[in-house]
Amino acid sequence: METNNHLPGITLTNNELRLLAATNGIAPAALKAVQIVETGGQSGFITKNHPKILFEGHIFWQQLERIGIDPRRHVKGNENILYKKQDQTKYRGGAAEYPRLYAACSINIDAAYRSTSWGMFQILGINYGWCGEPTVADFVKKMTYSEYHQMMLAINFMRNSGLLKLLANHDWTGFARRYNGPGYAKNRYAQRLADAYETLSKGF
Predict the structure, then answer these.
(1) pTM of this prediction?
(2) Residue 90 gets which letter from DSSP?
(3) Whole-angstrom distance, CA of residue 80 vs CA of residue 92
(4) 185-202 tens-digit pLDDT
(5) What's the pLDDT tens digit per position in 106-135?
(6) Cα–Cα dist 108/9, whole Å
(7) Dihedral (CA of 162, 163, 168, 172) sign
(8) Domain parsing of the chain, residue ranges
């Protein structure tokens, strides 16, 4: 599976970003800063047909239990996709995450989708409702369209979780604490956002 960091019709353009920012009352540089800091400037796609993903086996365990499927009955032969606690040694990264997802889908598609992080902002499938989608399948479908659609889903998520107001007000510390969790200070997440915004604002 070949990868490409710039895909015509897929990669988010600055004009598209300006439109999304204006529609949602955010400075374009603020929205771009989150994209840069969160993704390291990487694409939300591995190929034109494959969004960037990360499969979480411990979430998959929980999601199977949630719908009444005993994960212990499926562990044998699936040790790399089914485990009770988070285990980063199971991650394969890039295109190699897709065989893990496909194996999980053979057990239960809905639970597999919910247990995967998708796109530029690596939004976990269980958050599909916060992104404004009626089902996780609809969420995944939009993730495959383009980075523009991935950004729209991320904005919906930020709006519904109260993050969008913090971003609009350039409250980098408040945003970082909510978005990145307790480790935001150690990761210098707020400062990185502020620095990225300062740099990017000159280009917008």
Answers:
(1) 0.89
(2) G
(3) 10
(4) 888 999 999 999 999 998
(5) 999 999 999 999 999 999 999 999 999 999
(6) 31
(7) positive
(8) 14-44+143-200, 53-118
